């Protein structure tokens, strides 16, 4: 550790070995690019930056490796039971009628309870 505090590089980060030199974080030099001097200026002529060639091609492993999903045909599907669509429609209509009837009956009862509460509140205050 440096006596005056941690040694930091140009951008404020220390190199992995603790030195202030940030060469460990620089892009590796390629043989086709110009070598940079310590001042940061290119030492040679204009270099063409390398182009991204994309990810490497994938090759399927050999059959001997045994890799891949196991595909089986499975059992044949069984036949579904017969459905009487007209009977199902009738039962559905009956169930809908019962549901609507219960809803209407509930609304009527709630309306009557509300009406009775308003009438009773008016008679106790002497407004009616």
TrEMBL record:
Q: Where are the transmembrane segments?
A: 97-119
Q: Which UniProt keywords apply?
A: Membrane, Transmembrane, Transmembrane helix
Annotated region Disordered: the residues are 1-69
What is the recorded name of this protein? Uncharacterized protein
Record the organism: Cryptosporangium minutisporangium
């Amino acid at each position: 550790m440096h006596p005056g505090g941690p040694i930091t590089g140009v951008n404020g980060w220390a190199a992995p070995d603790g030195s202030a030199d940030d060469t460990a974080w620089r892009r590796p030099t390629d043989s086709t690019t110009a070598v940079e001097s310590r001042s940061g200026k290119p030492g040679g002529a204009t270099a063409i930056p390398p182009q991204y060639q994309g990810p490497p091609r994938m090759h399927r492993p050999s059959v001997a490796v045994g890799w891949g999903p196991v595909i089986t045909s499975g059992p044949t599907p069984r036949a579904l039971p017969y459905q009487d669509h007209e009977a199902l429609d009738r039962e559905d209509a009956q169930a809908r009628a019962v549901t609507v009837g219960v809803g209407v009956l509930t609304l009527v009862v709630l309306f009557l309870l509300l009406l009775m509460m308003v009438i009773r509140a008016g008679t106790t205050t002497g407004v009616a």
